[in-house]
Amino acid sequence: MKSVDVVLGLQWGDEGKGKIVDVLASDYKAVARFQGGPNAGHSICFGDKSFVLHSVPSGIFREDTLNFIGNGVVLDPIILMEEIHGIEAIGGKVDGRLLIAKRANLILPTHRILDAANEAHKGKSKIGSTLKGIGPAYTDKIARTGLRVGDICSPDFRQKYEALRDWHLIQINALGYTGYDLAESEAKWFEAIEALKAFRIVDNEVEINRCLSEDVSILAEGAQGSLLDIDFGTYPFVTSSNTLCAGACTGLGIAPARIGKVLGIFKAYCTRVGSGPFPTELFDETGETMRRLGHEYGATTGRARRCGWLDLVALKYTVMMNGATSLIMMKADVMNDFDTIKVCVGYEMGGKKLDYFPYEAGTEEITPVYREFKGWKTDISGVRTYDALPQELKDYVAFIEDYTGVPVGIVSVGPDRDQTVVR
To answer: Which residues, including other chains, have CB under 8 Å from residue 98's CB and lie 6 or more apart?
Structure first.
């Protein structure tokens, strides 16, 4: 029986998972999203085409590849249908190749309104939500009041919808939130629900395990990043799902023994969107240069990303939590012009030196301890073999491997699928 390989982000998201899944998908017969919602923005570039995927797995542009939206995902029908139309507009084929889990929870129009109402109520303590309704949808899932994709064919679906909508409106009104147009978004939502019925809605846990029994190779695709995990991230500034490798089991319905390789993606530096701790964040011209060269603006929100040096303490933590078997470095080319590159190798907190990522990271002030490396000062975007990379970059990679104890198998030197150096 085949195993499920998992690819996921090891930082605060935006690591470049879309490109890597697209590159790796040629080696797999199926790609499966196992958690998150349309707050994901997986950017794919190939030739003169580019596209940002939010809910559809990143294998959709590879012919003969099945794409599963797993039960751990929360799904906004409006955004999904817009995304499907966009894929088809640039020549992608979706029909027959996209399978949607019956057990995936739906995002209602009132979930989005409730999301905005909650953020407005929190004021300065808001978490920086993408306002896609994801948190409230997961809240309903845990409270056992949510609607799922499998419910849309139920004869009493409309009544179930109205009961949940009315409960949301009670909460929204209690928060004093006004200024929304529910009627317009509700009409679009039901139109999208009808369109959704034309797709393959399946018991994904059965279908995926059948694929495994038939030796079909599967790549599980995570969204967001490990430091945003609801349990082990920088709580409360996290997402609402389990972004770690363990989430692939519950988000797809596979046994832990079925997990094979775990491919962890990280940038050659760090970024973060929204609020929350970020020990190596830079507030100077260096940080602004990273943002400009890396085009560090959210693919989903357009918000400027916070930038800083690579944090190896945090990276080693997420490598441990995921059981990563191989690392993938993204955006090495963004560091082309730096004379010196710093890497965080330790923390100082409360007069103590730490070599691990602590619980108090969200509440206590942390001072990073840096090690400096000489920059490579050359354009690597055209390099296609590891041996041809500058020695300074290979020294940088070797130090990361030594610190984390895991090999770096891929170095990305640009956004296109061809700009990928595989060792």
So the answer is: 56, 60, 67, 69, 84, 199, 200
pLDDT digits (tens, 9 = 90+) for 166-200: 999 999 999 999 888 899 999 999 999 999 999 99
Rounded Cα gap, residues 354 and 346, in angstroms:
6
In terms of C-beta density within 10 A (0-12 exposed, 13-18 middle, 19 or more buried), how is residue 275 classed?
middle
Alpha-carbon distance 134 to 104, whole Å? 12
Which distant-in-sequence residues (6+ apart) come within 8 Å of 96 by Cβ?
Answer: 200
Between the alpha carbon of residue 107 and those of residues 26, 194, 262, 408, the distances in Å are 31, 15, 29, 37
Range in 155-159, 302-306, 314-318 with the lowest mean pLDDT: 302-306
Query: Which residues are catalytic, by number?
Result: 14, 42
| Cβ atoms of residues 251 and 242 within 8 Å | yes
Measured distance CA(129)–CA(289) in Å, rounded: 26
Sheet holding 30-33, edge to edge: 200-202, 98-101, 66-69, 30-33, 218-221, 4-9, 259-267, 326-330, 408-412, 420-422
Q: What is the DSSP letter of 3?
A: P
- Whether the CA torsion 202, 205, 207, 208 is positive or negative: it is positive
pTM equals 0.92
Residue with tokens 């690819």: 7
Query: Tokens 């070599």 — which residue?
Result: 355
Rounded to whole angstroms, the maximal C-alpha distance in the chain is: 66
